[in-house]
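Worked example 3 (structure in, sequence out).
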């Protein structure tokens, strides 16, 4: 077909959105039966180029909806609404062993979505697209506050949601690569949590002394989070990935500062050690149990196999008194994650505290379980921060299964955090009413019978009074399933902020136009980020 006669249109909604929210890619005005390629291109912060693409055929109306239609070929197959992101791979000829991790969360991940004629597989840089759209994916939603923390020698960043708070807290620990990586903490803040990203390997203390930080470093970070005026000091979780998981267990079991029931832990990764972590790791590496595959990628999973029965080597998880969520990749080639999880389960069953344990185990899923739609990397170049040793590590996982696991685990992890961190028996004279999904639906006065579960039951006076009472907690959810992309919203009363995430009961009661999408700022607008306005109070005026 002559390109000059083709007026294909392309839209991506939202073109500016949160990193963990889905978008809809829609191609229209193509000839019926038209074969086309939808292509995504991303140049990451280290200037390496990534691409993904799917092959589609327009229907009788000349339309392709990537969220509903089959990809017949490309980097993903079948109906995969977000395949253009999670299947991103380095362009042909790239340096081997690359991985995408966002370094600067104050700028978006930019992805160019394009449509090409016919089913193309290579040479996209030399092709002329029929249409293109630039998409921005943000880790920081409008209104999120980023606060560097250096007190007590810490290398950390605190992310606070919009509004006055206080908010539940998260101490966020990543793995043995070091660096202050903030992308996960920024996303936690988008979901209503005050999250502290902590660098515990390449911080000032470690660099100056050459030693691994001691327990006091993590306790200082916990105290900073707990004592912040906008953090609910009695509701703090610790989240660990890989080596961060081992530290999470160690602090939860043995530290006098981390005290349940104020504390929950979510850990995708490793079994914990009861002794000092760096010497333990060095001793393990010297056992000769590491393997190298035919692609010269190192496999570490055999280091702890078989799982030892020596309880002096393991954290005594039978002492845990707080909820624990384990996320397990059954094809983890870096660590025996599944075997470790089963050992933890057995230990907790023997101690009688297994009711606190939830295990999410995913087949064909590797070691690095990231937030949704993060491109899967089966193996990558890696430098251990403690030793500065460089190697290519095999993480494991099959692309489709791993990507689906990331999406499912993130959703269930947020639910776990909300359920446990918001499930407070009493606070400021109110009780929080929890819905079946674990999200707060409203409140009950402690000494009164009145029960508020959906917004349409509120009069103007009670709505205003109760929203103000709850504004510090931001727990009343006012979002319907028809508005799944909305996150933080602001009422006409500037003192009241509402986090919109789970509530679906009021969808039929809110007139069209009451809810509006958040406006993601352009880079030059930061840090003066506009906030979305929700005219709820105006609507409440009309209620009986």
């Amino acid at each position: 077909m002559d390109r000059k006669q083709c007026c294909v249109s392309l839209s991506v909604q939202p073109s500016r959105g949160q990193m963990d929210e889905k978008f809809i890619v829609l191609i229209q005005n193509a000839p019926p039966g038209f074969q086309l390629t939808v292509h995504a291109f991303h140049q990451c912060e280290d200037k390496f180029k990534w691409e993904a693409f799917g092959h589609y055929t327009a229907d009788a109306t000349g339309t392709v909806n990537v969220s509903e239609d089959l990809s017949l070929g490309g980097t993903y197959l079948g109906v995969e609404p977000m395949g253009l992101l999670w299947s991103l791979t380095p362009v042909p000829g790239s340096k081997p062993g690359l991985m995408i991790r966002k370094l600067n969360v104050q700028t978006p991940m930019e992805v160019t979505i394009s449509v090409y004629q016919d089913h193309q597989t290579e040479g996209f840089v030399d092709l002329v697209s029929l249409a293109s759209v630039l998409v921005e994916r943000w880790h920081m939603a409008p209104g999120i506050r980023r606060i560097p923390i250096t007190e007590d020698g810490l290398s950390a960043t605190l992310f606070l949601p919009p509004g006055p708070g206080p908010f539940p807290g998260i101490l966020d620990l990543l793995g043995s690569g070091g660096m202050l990586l903030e992308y996960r903490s920024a996303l936690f803040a988008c979901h209503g949590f005050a999250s502290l990203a902590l660098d515990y390997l390449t911080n000032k203390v470690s660099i100056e002394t050459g030693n691994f930080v001691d327990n006091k470093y993590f306790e200082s970070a916990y105290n900073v989070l707990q004592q912040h005026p906008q953090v609910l000091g009695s509701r703090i979780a610790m989240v660990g990935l890989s080596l961060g998981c081992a530290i999470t267990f160690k602090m939860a079991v043995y530290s006098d500062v981390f005290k349940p029931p104020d504390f929950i832990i979510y850990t995708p990764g490793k079994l914990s050690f009861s002794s000092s972590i760096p010497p333990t790791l060095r001793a393990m590496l010297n056992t000769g149990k590491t393997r190298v595959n035919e692609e010269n990628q190192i496999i570490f999973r055999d280091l702890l196999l078989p799982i030892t029965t020596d309880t002096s080597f393991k954290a005594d998880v039978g002492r845990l008194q707080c909820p624990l969520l384990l996320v397990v990749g059954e094809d983890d080639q870096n660590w025996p994650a599944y075997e470790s999880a089963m050992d933890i389960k057995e230990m907790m069953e023997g101690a009688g505290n297994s009711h606190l344990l939830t295990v999410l185990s995913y087949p064909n899923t590797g070691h690095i379980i990231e937030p949704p739609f993060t491109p899967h990397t089966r193996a990558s170049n890696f430098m251990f921060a403690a030793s500065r040793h460089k190697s290519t590590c095999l993480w494991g996982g099959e692309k489709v299964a791993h990507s689906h696991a990331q999406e499912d685990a993130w959703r269930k992890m947020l639910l776990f955090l909300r359920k446990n961190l918001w499930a407070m028996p009493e606070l400021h004279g109110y009780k929080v009413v929890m819905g079946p999904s674990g999200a707060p639906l409203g409140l009950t006065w402690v000494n009164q019978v009145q029960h508020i579960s959906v917004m349409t039951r509120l009069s103007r006076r009670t709505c205003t009074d109760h929203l103000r009472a709850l504004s510090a907690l931001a727990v009343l959810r006012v979002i319907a399933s028809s508005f799944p992309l909305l996150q933080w919203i602001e009422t006409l009363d500037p003192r009241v902020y509402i986090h919109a995430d789970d509530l679906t009961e009021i969808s039929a009661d809110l007139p069209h136009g009451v809810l509006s999408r958040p406006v993601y700022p352009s880079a030059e607008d930061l840090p003066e980020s506009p906030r979305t306005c929700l005219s709820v109070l105006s609507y409440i005026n009309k209620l009986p």
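Notes: Residues 272-276, 424-544 have pLDDT under 50 and may be disordered. Residues 82 and 373 are 7 Å apart (CA to CA).
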